[in-house]
Amino acid sequence: MIRALSIFMLCCSFAYSGLLKDEIKPVMQEKIDYVIKILQGENLDKALLSNDIFEQFNGMFDFPLMARLSLGPKQWNSLNEKEKDRYITHFVGRMKRSFIQRLELYSDEIMVIKDTKEVTAGSATRIYLVTELVGKEKNYPIVYKFHNSQKDGWMIYDVDILDVSLIQTYRAQFDSYLDAHSLDNLIAWLDEDETL
Fold this sequence. Notes:
This protein is of the alpha+beta class. The protein has a five-stranded antiparallel beta sheet with strand order 1-2-3-4-5. It is globular. It has eight helices and five strands. The chain has one domain (2-190): Roll (Nuclear Transport Factor 2, Chain: A), CATH 3.10.450. The two termini are 18 Å apart. 48% of the residues lie in helices and 22% in strands.
């Protein structure tokens, strides 16, 4: 699970614009291949690697939507615009730090894109990019979920790792935490260590 999460985090970055529908599979394959090549190289300076990898996936993740979904509608709707912006900034910062920490866990796995699936949810269409992390002893399914942001094209809004939604996992953790703490406490935690 940790290795699967590591590879997911290797594919995260920030800002830019999304993809056209027909670009999802080939562009993701190209980006994933590039990241694997970087990780198999000699230079394992975490800061340099993370900057290079972030640049490769620039704009493919819809972090504002991911942040909103991780909080849930009740909590999100209770925030003003300034609080929403603050939460997004700290949520994205947390994901970036998690990524850098997980770089150390990489050990020669490869990722194979198996399929794309078009899924209809109400009136919205989603694209699921089905991949598999191939390890020495075990393979791990990872599904990248894309939505059409209209303004920015197709962007990732969630990732299922071993059939578990990353966003739903965050949401369950945050709901539980917010039962006993304030949003300010949650934001402070996002700036700290890895566990609640």
